[in-house]
Protein: Chloride channel protein
Amino acid sequence: MDASTSPHDDASEVLLPQRSSLAEQLLSQRSIHLSRSSPNNTSQVAIIGSNLCPIESLDFELIENDLFNQNWRSRGKAHKYRYVVLKWTFCLLIGVLVAAVGFFNNLAVENITGFKFLSLSKLMEAERYWTAFGVFAGSNLLLLLFASAITSFISPAAGGSGIPEVKAYLNGVDAPNIFTLKTLFVKILGNITAVSSSLHVGKAGPMVHIGACIASIFGQGGSQKYHLTCDWLRYFKNDRDRRDLVTIGASAGIAAGFRAPVGGVLLAVESLSSWWRSALLWRSFFATAVVAVVLRVLIGVCDSGQCGLFGKGGLIMYDVTNDTTTYQLADLPIVILLGIIGGVLGSLYNFLMLKVLRIYGYINEKSHAHKLLLTSAVSILISCFLYWLPWIASCRPCPSTSNGDCLSTNRFRQFQCPKNYYNDLASLFLNTHDNAIRNLYSTGTNDFYHPLSLLLFFVSSYIFGILSYGVVAPFGLFVPIILTGATYGRFVAILLGSYTELDHGLVAILGSASFLGGTMRMTVSVCVIIIELTNNLLLLPLVMLVLLVSKTVADSFNGNIYDMILQLKGLPYLEGHAEPYMRQLTVSDVLSGPLHSFNGVEKVGNIVHTLRSTRHHAFPVIDEPPFSPSPVLYGLILRSHLLVVLKKKAFVPTNSLSGHEKASKIFVASDFDKRGSGKHDTIDDVNITPEEMEMFVDLHPFTNTSPYTVVETMSLAKALTLFREVGLRHMLVVPKSSDRAPVVGILTRHDFLPEHILGLHPFLVRSHWKRLRWNRSTVTKYFRSFITWLACSG
Amino acid sequence: MDASTSPHDDASEVLLPQRSSLAEQLLSQRSIHLSRSSPNNTSQVAIIGSNLCPIESLDFELIENDLFNQNWRSRGKAHKYRYVVLKWTFCLLIGVLVAAVGFFNNLAVENITGFKFLSLSKLMEAERYWTAFGVFAGSNLLLLLFASAITSFISPAAGGSGIPEVKAYLNGVDAPNIFTLKTLFVKILGNITAVSSSLHVGKAGPMVHIGACIASIFGQGGSQKYHLTCDWLRYFKNDRDRRDLVTIGASAGIAAGFRAPVGGVLLAVESLSSWWRSALLWRSFFATAVVAVVLRVLIGVCDSGQCGLFGKGGLIMYDVTNDTTTYQLADLPIVILLGIIGGVLGSLYNFLMLKVLRIYGYINEKSHAHKLLLTSAVSILISCFLYWLPWIASCRPCPSTSNGDCLSTNRFRQFQCPKNYYNDLASLFLNTHDNAIRNLYSTGTNDFYHPLSLLLFFVSSYIFGILSYGVVAPFGLFVPIILTGATYGRFVAILLGSYTELDHGLVAILGSASFLGGTMRMTVSVCVIIIELTNNLLLLPLVMLVLLVSKTVADSFNGNIYDMILQLKGLPYLEGHAEPYMRQLTVSDVLSGPLHSFNGVEKVGNIVHTLRSTRHHAFPVIDEPPFSPSPVLYGLILRSHLLVVLKKKAFVPTNSLSGHEKASKIFVASDFDKRGSGKHDTIDDVNITPEEMEMFVDLHPFTNTSPYTVVETMSLAKALTLFREVGLRHMLVVPKSSDRAPVVGILTRHDFLPEHILGLHPFLVRSHWKRLRWNRSTVTKYFRSFITWLACSG
Structure:
């Protein structure tokens, strides 16, 4: 039954005398090779949302067993039309629902925060400053505690932005509960309350998760619990179609979050999805177009003033279209400077964010009480700063352009100032993030803000952003990053003074772009989102340039924020490109055993024992005499399919072929449909009597006869290319010479993870075949010398 | 030496009793199976530009032989930095050069046509109408003949838009001369003159080819002929890096053609490239950003009036940004109507275009004289219509908004009219295409055009577009399609009259979008290009919707224009998705023999004989006793590498391993670099003496030890997925049972082509496992009944 893994058989060594130095090093690591019969011990759990969960790989391969083939052949044209119609209907529904949720989110946040700030203003006018602070801090605390509590107690998977989880799902990592109805509701409610609590968090990121949730629920194939099943929905009960739906949902989510339909599609292409097809581009484009149309209609409804404090507006969030954009070649250095600043600040932001997330992680791990305590502490701290910092700022008279009444626009804050005066710091601090961004982006307002106010706001929003994200509640990163970037953009513009004639509002937009580039490292999508947010196409070349510079600078320090969070969460994300050292290894160098395989006709007892004693999700099926002249690989059978076979007890008393006819009588293809995320049977759900244990089962009809295979001598880099490009879960390794067992091992996602490979071959860690990047020590060194230089020159 | 292909060996038949009906059908086609030892006879030539050329597949796989591995290991950090720096420098240079060429193209076209129309106006004012016609038609004829002559005689590969060729190249089909310096010059010059000749052709499509050419020349690794070689450039001497460069060049080309940097990248993603990576997105984005900046600078230079008749302008080609866009929900039916019209007209356009291209093809095949005669006929015909049709239109007074002097803008034509009057038809016909589009897109001009003028212009530009494209000269399709679409958009708007308050200019934009969607079937990229052309982001939802409708409608009739042209040209384009019937076949069902393989140590005479007698580009290398206990697949060796080995005569007198050390003394890795397109040795370039013929050569160091393999029983659909996703040129098929030769065949691109498969298994043609599409007979039927209905009701 077991085929042992012998990585370097003699034959191949004779043939490979030239695999010189590396092979020697490998062989000298005998101790590692001896431990290779131990299973791959990379982690099978990860932090999903805010809790540790078991994770599983998704299977994007078509399982072409005989039952599937028969079923597939029997599908007529009607089935195919039905499938196509359903796909497009789902896209339409996803678009409508995501747009509605996005609009409702906005409406709720605007109304809650609007009401909060209205009460605050009234109390300030009455000069009841301490009461005002109490109301402000109290309501913030309550809102955030509510968000945190529902996340902790009802659905921990809803915590955070959800983008890392969606990204991992689209890469092939599944976790229970990330896409359930419960998660969806907690995400929506929690996000509204958390964003309304004046924490430095955004509402765009969670829209990705919300979109993905809605889409995934469509792909569940109905619900047996609520008797909502339908034969039509069966077509989507596989990971491939679900992946497509989730991709579309995520695009729609971003499109609704930023009202940026093209940007949504691009973000999904550029940084969320790991596989992409032209057909998918078209469908997600349709979904985001629907989002745009629905949002426009809903916003039109609100223009009549029936939406409370939501206010009027168009599809463009931060419209600067009325302003003529002029820039000269002489402005290029400024753009490059902004890019460099954005890159440095962005990579530092990522670095600090990771540190803070680690510390928060330790606290959050302990208990629910710790989580809520941390939440309260952060909320109170930030509320204090938000309320008391603006007192430092001096009052400024309303600009003449607004006819002395600058406060009616609801974007400037009077705070403690006399009538017709405004407090610039309060206008940024005590405002919705959207209004603060509008303030900073607005053109023709070069002298509205004192440089020190901007500096203070920049420093605090930089720190608040880092401090806020680790709190257990559903919220995102985009908006705080856009806001912080806009602030230093304006600050830089003021510092440059008369050197440039660029409008400060435009420099603020470039600042946002550079900071987004420095933290998230996306290019095309962020560029299009910025353009769709501001509706000023003439900015395009500048935004492109600033993004490129900031990404380049930041990439030389560390990775993008979402990848760092992915790693921190322990999600086994599989990169598309091979690490350079993988080219020096062969597939057999990373194989870990032992391998369990089944005969074509196998004893029930053996199957049950193997399923009980291992956690493998697939097993090779090997035909041995008398069914074939010599041992031959027949295919690969999945654990889930074996469980179905065991449950229906398709057994025969003797070791003989029962064949396809019998199987097709007992089973229908839908028995083998992949069930929804987190729902699967275990071997303990199957009751087998001792008599049945001695019976046999013919596995041929249930075996995938076309698994992808590689030869054991294939280079690991090329095997990874196959594994990743085709989207596999299991890849069979066959021996080079024919005199051995027909399969020598199975490769899974975990076998390609750098921590596994570098654990097996530790000398590779020190090798020079690594990616070009400044490592942490270099960065620390440079930072230290920079600080020393500052101290000396200061 | 030969391993015969036996598709259904007995062992597998015992194991597959269930592969019932289809297997029987397959087996009943014995006659086909008997013919399977004949080679795959799909065509190895295709029409490139305007001439028949031999084609070859590209190899995107890394050839991991020992020499490569050794060389790769020896590369230090300095090499990698150099490679990265070079890659980015190339992007920068591509951006600058493509922008410069794009700008120069525009400048030249505007000046030549401007001068032409200026002379025309002067002669018209002097009432010398026949002279005017003579000058007009004569200059058109001369310009077009020049373009046609240089294309025919100097570089036929430069003919047409070049987009199909670039698309095929990025799919892995190489043709000689498509990316040479000569082609580049002919393309630039020919395009300028052809567009200036008032033919109904565009200048955006050729920019893709020009961009790809420029990029590919960077990837040639210098030129030995002109002694421009450099060790640094070696890194790009492989198909992978060249593919990346060409993709970037094509993006830059579109970006320069439409001044649409984001649209350029998206078009490359959506419809040009077959493989895409995030890193590539970033680099092409950089190149297009450079294009935008350079274009802006160059346009800025022209604003001072030093560019002749080029005129002033911004980065936006057809700016409608100043106009407030208002639309209601009630306008949605109009958008959908436009979409449907666009879809029907677009698919009909494709259909007619194909017919005309076929007819032109017959004529062009005959001789150069025939080509030039056809060119002249088309040019004279179109010139006649362009000049004489506007006489039908009545003169219209200049609108009051232009203060009575509508002709000073250079966009309206006085033609035969009195002063302060304009001829609306002449303003469209006798104008540059850019100006005509600007006329149609301009808002607030609802009553500038007589409906009949629009209808006449629409019909003629629809027909002219179809008639023009097949002429042998370098030009594109985008601009005529945009223009034709805009015309019927405006016409529809006039017909709707007071039903809608949509501005006619905006409806014209939607018309362009719908016609682009109906012919080219792109969605996201066309949408972004339209937005970047017009700078009106508020149109986005409408443009998205109209594109979706028109693409859906058109897709139900036929394929997109470029794919149809690809097929017409005979380019073996490999689709990314498997056809449904491929799931019913196994790999062995399409294998065609005979297979030629080599021993690990092979006699020189055998190699020479095999290379002479076959046209295969790769051969399996099999180790047989005494070098291994049983026959074992060692790897795959390329014909080009064999030729290098033969040329350097690395022979040994006896049948023994000479090993890696000897090889590394004689060869350096650069010997095996892939040379530029079209440059390769043949076996006839190698001189081997009869004594040498009896010697041996050790093929091990030159063999790719990690070729991708599939088992013969794998389903064809899954094999295609692997072949296409990984980007292979050769895929080895290994037997299922171990008692046979270690390789049973090699699959190449041609084995996956539908014409090959359906040729082998003709019954599949009638099967119901086909894609959902109306076939030609259905369409013809519907068209006939529609025409009958028209005739009856008329």
Q: What stands out?
A: Residues 581 and 769 of chain A are 5 Å apart (CA to CA). Chain A has 29 helices and 14 strands. Chain A touches chain B through 106 residues (CB under 8 Å).
